[in-house]
Specification:
heterotrimer, A alpha/beta (506), B mainly alpha (316), C mainly alpha (319), B: mainly alpha, two-stranded antiparallel sheet, 14 helices, 76% helix, globular, C: mainly alpha, two-stranded antiparallel ribbon
Chain lengths: 506, 316, 319
């Protein structure tokens, strides 16, 4: 057997003492389309970024074309023949399509000037190979994301890379565009180019990939040929769900809250849509009820939360609070109406890093703590004190800057920010992501106790057990629409997985 | 109750103390009331403008128009108290010559804030408009003439002494205390720091970001207006072409040396006062010891670069 | 042609042409050789620093030091003017390059924010200029050929300074439009993270733009000393903001990633033209707007451009 194109062995990497990769292994053959799967935080991105020279590995070896290499920068990786299309588009939207294809590798004339004619020829050749028709002189940003994505792939292909890495390339593509992309991937494969294809859409992986590597908690826990596996095998391996003891340890603290029957409706959304990939959502939440929102990445769960919280304008449908139609056109209005929203993105939409625990915790409550513009600090301190105790926030004191706290404790402070306003409805987007197991259970317990006091909770989670054990009902979303409402008790993991996966492009 | 003391402030205090000790040792007549008064009167206007600049920088912005706004306010005041009406009603006239220029300055700030918060224009560009045209407006108001006057009531603002210290020194000190209180104790201060610290998170937490930004530019412009009045009062003359020239740079320098970061989210009010004093005293030290005036600029440049570099290190 | 004038920068050229037409039709001596050459001679300095600023802004940076660096260069050139143009010109430009190197070190190596780094250089350059000149204007040596650059004209019409400026503009244009370096400059401003991930040499491009801007300021300083007979340590205050305004009026966004060298030239000329037109209007005597109005009108002008841009970016972001 010949040596594989790429062989990564025992890769380790940690960030500020937190391990992101413990034992990453990856092997890819010539002309192979290979997928890396795993949950959020399993280490996929880290592994890829080590390969592409963005991060330096702490340990392990990388063999490329039979030789041990150390790729120190994105430029070095590209020079070696590894091209990457990142999940967040890394092109320059202000510049033209031609420039984005040739940037850094511009064809030159004899006088060392850029040969724009040659660049245009090259661009047209690449685009026509993929069957994309557009004006290459226009700014890339003027085209839809899908086109930009294909241009990024075109750039990779034009560099005659030996390995093309695609990180969630289809998250913004429609079905027809996905077909175009698959055509491109097969063309690359036929030309002997290898592809790493990372996607949350398992159907796509089964359609286009040859091999797969499974990561969990920073380790490679399995690898094999797609043909030998079923979708459920893959999911089981990703979740580490096969063994009974894991099942027990993973029991969430959300379980067991009784549904408050017949209570009043807190919020009802009727066919709401936004310009931001929310197509049609119907939702009803009663006091004392946890409704889960399930779906794959890109199914519109976060977009649903943003719409309800007044961050995106509704293009259709209406929201009713306690039976009355309301227009929530800003988070401020939503908060005034009794809503709270714990964003999944703690860093960019949650903490104010330089402010203290106290100041972060009371930010949403502040208007109610203020008289004549002056904050009643004594009362503020009492409230913060009680939350630090109730939520078990580990902090030196309430005046410590929040950036110095661990992720789990930051999350508790942010949860406290919303609990403090005594919301009628709390929207939680991945409330336990990126926090350690202990903090996770504590956070879940806090949520449950609030629900028992009559708060309604809309819970967005990628963790099936959190949804199945915690939510009274689960609304399943797909492509921006709510397609099904499953009622607990009685929802099983298989049922949920099938509901989420059904109807996805086969 | 633990109130965290900013370590940068400690560093600045140590630097300032060292400078004072050095001066006591080498500068003749340093420890004398006159020296203190001279330095206090020179640093006061810079400090007042720098306080406002600190707020703007804390919001994640910058205000280049402060010097021009000073010129507008400074040009207006003599026009008002030299008018026939004011001469007939000296009491009202004096009051109006304080209030109206400050209102005009506030309007400049409102305009800046509107462009930035409502239209999303970058602060550098938005405030560049007044930087360019504000001084022109002031010159048009005065026909480009130097206005000289004798009005002891008005000039008291710049030349009066209270307890041996110039009035404007007391004003700067009082404003420092008031703004420090505002930043720490009021909802505006809290909102200001959250807008500058993480604007998206602030929006999500219900902070009225646009209102906070507009208020900040209004406060800054009003403080600049006050500084303009003081400059006019000191000179008993108003020269629209010169009032507040290059003030934006002095103010930014004081704020940054005092610990403000251009990325926003921190409003070290006391630090700004100390930063202004530090720069002033450094200049005084060099000049008093026969080192040429212009080298203070080079030293100031080095201080700014070092201050920013130290901050960068902390921010990782 | 479209490419040379800068794509999508039609408006600024149209405004320039309209103002020129107004001037020609309304005032008798507007189209005279004397007026043209003094206009171009004076604005050569602004054209050249605006072009340097344009490249810096394309990367999303800013250079506040250009005004005082120009003043410093004028002093250096004036001091060395007895040795003739061959020494004084390179020395002045070299002083600018040195300041640019200081900026580049602080920004590309120490990662200081451009605003603060160039602010420090601005102060330092002023201090050094005052020191070298002993706080006075430095008269140039009229017996050497130094003043030829600023005072002589080709065919009695085009000052040499504007020709040198146009060469600098042409070089900047070629670099931006035709070289990999220039494309990297634009890519950094468009998306610095992406530029790095695309494997571009981003540090090199950053160093380049600050050096280039410093050299441009150096040229402006030499023009100043040569054209007005003295090194002026206190001149140049506010030039940096005039240059920024010219760049913005030329359609370059301060966020970087876009822009046109040639449209920046149009922006700089447009600002100069407002001033010249006002002078002529006053000379005509039908109504008199004092020179004080010129900055008010420039400010209004900038406001209009900014409002238009804000509208355009809003429309663009909606798509």
């Amino acid at each position: 057997m010949t040596e594989p194109l790429l062989q990564m062995t025992g890769i380790t990497k940690s960030f500020g003492g937190v391990p992101a990769l413990v034992d990453g292994n990856l092997s890819i053959g010539q002309g192979e389309v290979h997928s890396i799967v795993g949950q959020n935080g399993a280490g996929k991105s880290t592994l890829v970024k080590i390969l592409t020279g963005v991060y330096r590995r702490d340990g392990g070896t990388v063999r490329w074309q039979g030789r041990e290499v150390d790729l120190r920068s994105p430029r070095a990786a590209q020079a070696a023949g590894i091209a990457t299309i990142y999940q967040e588009l890394t092109l320059v939207p202000q510049r033209t399509v031609i420039e984005n294809i040739v940037l850094g590798y511009e064809p030159l004339t004899r006088f060392g000037m850029i040969d724009w004619r040659a660049a245009e020829r090259l661009t047209r050749a690449v685009l026509s190979r993929f069957g994309i028709e557009l004006d290459p002189h226009r700014a890339l940003g003027s085209y839809p994301t899908a086109i930009q994505q294909l241009v990024a792939i075109g750039r990779a292909a034009s560099m005659e890379a030996k390995l093309v890495i695609m990180d969630e390339p289809t998250s913004s593509l429609d079905e027809r565009e996905v077909e175009v992309l698959f055509g491109v991937i097969r063309a690359l494969k036929d030309a002997g180019t290898s592809v790493i294809y990372i996607s949350h859409f398992l159907d796509e992986i089964f359609e286009v990939c040859d091999g797969v590597t499974i990561l969990r908690d920073g380790r490679t826990v399995g690898a094999g040929q797609i043909a030998d596996l079923t979708k459920l095998d893959l999911i089981a391996a990703m979740l580490g769900r096969s063994a009974e003891d894991i099942r027990k340890a993973g029991m969430t603290e959300l379980a067991g809250s009784a549904r408050a029957e017949g209570d009043e409706t807190v919020l009802e959304a009727r066919g709401i849509a936004t310009d931001r990939r929310l197509r049609k959502l119907d939702l009803k939440l009663r006091a004392g009820e946890i409704v889960g929102l399930a779906g794959l990445l890109g199914s519109g769960r976060t977009e649903a939360a943003r719409a309800l919280f007044g961050m995106d304008r509704l293009s259709a449908g209406e929201v009713r609070l306690a039976g009355k139609a309301v227009l929530l056109d800003s988070p401020r209005a939503a908060i005034a109406a009794g809503l709270g929203f714990l964003s999944e993105d703690r860093k960019t939409e949650g903490i104010i890093p330089d402010l203290s625990v106290r100041q972060n915790l009371t930010l949403a409550l502040l208007p109610r703590l203020t008289r004549m513009g002056v904050v009643d600090e004594a009362r503020e301190r009492r409230i913060v004190e009680s939350f630090i105790k109730a939520l078990g926030i580990k902090t030196a004191d309430m005046d410590q800057p929040i950036r110095e706290l661990s992720g789990g404790n930051q999350q508790k402070v942010l949860l406290g920010r919303w609990l403090a306003i005594e919301p009628r409805l709390l929207i939680l987007d991945e409330p336990t992501r990126g926090v350690d197991v202990g903090a996770k259970r504590e956070i879940q317990a806090i949520i449950r106790s609030r629900v028992e006091k009559g708060c309604a909770v809309l819970l967005i989670s990628s963790e099936f057990e959190e949804l199945i054990e915690g939510a009274h009902d689960i609304v399943v979303m797909q492509e921006g629409r709510s397609i099904k409402r499953l009622s607990n008790p009685g929802v099983t993991e298989d049922q949920l997985i099938h509901a989420i996966a059904s109807g996805a492009p086969a | 109750m633990s109130r965290r003391f900013d370590p940068r402030l400690t560093g600045l205090l140590i630097g300032l103390s060292a400078l004072i000790v050095l001066n006591i040792a080498v500068t003749p007549n340093f420890l004398n009331m006159q020296t203190l008064a001279v330095n206090a009167s020179q640093v006061a206007t810079i400090a007042i403008v720098a306080l406002g600049m600190t707020l703007v920088i804390a919001s994640g912005g910058i205000d280049l128009s402060v010097g021009s706004v000073m010129a507008v306010a400074g040009a207006l005041a003599p026009i008002i108290f030299l008018s026939g009406w004011a001469l007939d009603n000296p009491g009202f006239g004096l009051a109006a010559s304080f209030v109206l220029p400050l209102l005009a300055a506030a309007c400049c700030g409102l305009f800046n804030g509107f462009l930035i918060a409502k239209l999303g224009v970058q602060p550098i560009i938005a405030t560049l408009i007044f930087f360019i045209s504000g001084r022109g407006i002031a010159q048009v108001l005065t026909n480009g003439n130097l206005q000289t006057f004798t009005n002891p009531d008005f000039t008291w603002l710049g030349t009066g002494r209270v307890l041996g210290l110039p009035v404007q020194g007391w004003i700067a000190l009082a404003l420092t205390l008031v703004l420090a209180w505002m930043v720490r104790k009021t909802i505006y201060g809290r909102y200001l720091l959250s807008v500058g610290g993480n604007e998206r998170a602030a929006v999500m937490a219900g902070v009225p970001v646009a209102r906070v930004k507009i208020a900040t530019y209004v406060i800054t412009a009003t403080l600049a207006g006050l500084a303009g009045l003081i400059v006019v009062a000191i000179n008993s003359a108003s020269d629209a072409a010169r009032i507040g020239q290059l003030m934006e740079l002095d103010a930014i320098a004081a704020a940054v040396v005092g610990g403000a970061a251009l990325s926003g989210g921190r409003a070290p009010i006391f630090g700004t006062l100390l930063g202004a004093i530090f720069i002033q005293l450094m200049g005084y030290t060099l000049i008093a010891n026969g080192i040429s005036d212009e080298m203070t600029l080079v030293v100031t440049a080095a201080i700014i670069a070092i201050a920013v570099w130290l901050q960068r290190g902390r921010r990782n | 042609m479209r490419k040379v004038l800068g794509r999508g920068h039609f408006a600024v050229w149209a405004a320039l042409v309209v103002l020129i037409l107004v001037g020609v039709l309304r005032y008798d001596n507007f189209a005279s050789a004397y007026n043209l050459s003094s206009f171009l001679g004076y604005n050569a300095m602004f054209v050249v620093i605006s072009v340097g600023m344009c490249l810096v802004i394309m990367t999303g940076g800013i250079d506040l030091s250009v005004g005082t660096v120009a003043a410093l260069a004028s002093v250096v050139a004036a001091l060395l003017s007895p040795y003739g143009l061959v020494v004084a010109l390179p020395a002045g430009v070299g002083a600018g390059l040195l300041a640019g190197a200081l900026n580049a070190t602080m920004i590309a190596a120490l990662r200081l924010p451009p605003f603060m780094a160039t602010l420090a250089t601005m102060l330092a350059a002023k201090g050094i200029a005052l020191r070298l000149s002993d706080n006075r204007a430095v008269p140039v040596d009229w017996t050497s050929d130094f003043t030829a650059l600023g005072m002589n004209k080709v065919a009695n019409l085009l000052p040499w300074t504007i020709l040198v400026s146009l060469v600098v503009v042409a070089i900047a244009w070629v670099i931006v439009e035709r070289t990999s370096l220039g494309r990297t400059v634009l890519a950094i401003g468009g998306n610095a993270e992406a530029a790095h991930l695309m494997g571009l040499k981003t540090r090199r491009a950053e160093v380049f733009v600050y050096l280039f801007s410093g050299a441009c300021a150096g040229f402006a300083g030499v023009f100043l000393a040569s054209g007005y007979g003295a090194g002026q340590p206190l001149e140049g205050a506010g030039w940096e903001l005039a240059a920024i305004a010219a760049v913005v009026v030329g359609g370059t966004l301060l966020t970087g990633g876009m822009g046109s060298v040639t449209a920046t030239v149009a922006g700089a000329l447009l600002f100069g033209l407002v001033f010249t037109l006002l002078n002529f209007e006053n000379g005509r005597g039908t109504f008199s707007l004092s020179a004080d109005w010129q900055s008010v009108i420039r400010g209004l002008f900038l406001l209009i451009v900014i409002l238009l841009q804000a509208r355009l970016t809003r429309l663009a972001s909606k798509n």
